[in-house]
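Late entry, adenosine-5'-triphosphate complex.
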Amino acid sequence: MSTVTQHRLPVPKLLARRVGRALAEFTMIRPGDRILLALSGGKDSWSLLELLREWQAHSPIPFALGVATVDPMSPEYDPAPLRAAVEARGLPYYLERQDIYGRAQQHLGRPSYCSFCARMRRGVLYACARREGYNVLALGQHLDDLAESFFMSLFYNGELRTMKVHYRVREGDLRVIRPLAYCRERQTRDFAEATGLPVIPENCPACFAHPTERAYVKTLLAQQEARDPRLFRQLRRAMLPLMARGLPQLDEGWT
Ligand SMILES: Nc1ncnc2c1ncn2[C@@H]1O[C@H](COP(=O)(O)OP(=O)(O)OP(=O)(O)O)[C@@H](O)[C@H]1O
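Prediction complete; structure with ligand written out below:
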């Protein structure tokens, strides 16, 4: 185990508080959980990694933490530097190579290739968690992501939906958590920049085209927030029942 293990980056209080609040309100972590954090190497999952390390050091709830990256084998994405950075933090690291890029290219022209890649990646992460004995998968989506998904779902599918923040997968053996659900994207960006987290660029194997709908919704939300700074507070309140869908019950037995 590396000597760098004990060194944790200073986490801003507000960011830590928001993560703590989400973890508590949705009972995301249970004693003895083995959490596999999905690290793309972007600012969000890197921030989540540091926040969970901090939480692990101070929380009365004991849990284990490991880290996995899916390498979709796209020429734009090189996760090679991640292993050393994670292992220097004393955490187990799994690099899962799968030719998602090649398979996604066969799906070019489909409007849903982005979700195709995300689904493939998710399958790889579940398989890694099961193989290595983890029971929880932690993902780095934040409040901005949830709000964008909410409006995309509303505008393009006519549904009131967003990403769930804590749920059990269909097979029943894994739980998925999104501890950054109350955090803003600018907070993870600022944190990553201020602490010099080793962020790697380009993590989407489907970068042959940009998800324009998401960019449009992002701009729309930024314009509305400029008019009313309370926007995301209101959105969080409005989305709460949707975020909490499928919340595992405390008495159902935890895996
Ligand atoms: N290649 C990957 N390997 C492992 N986990 C991934 C990978 N790509 C994405 N994820 C996980 O899915 C989450 C959402 O992915 P998305 O592509 O939307 O990333 P993002 O919003 O740019 O976040 P990040 O800054 O962490 O890349 C990430 O925060 C991360 O937890």
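The radius of gyration is 18 Å. Will revisit in the morning.
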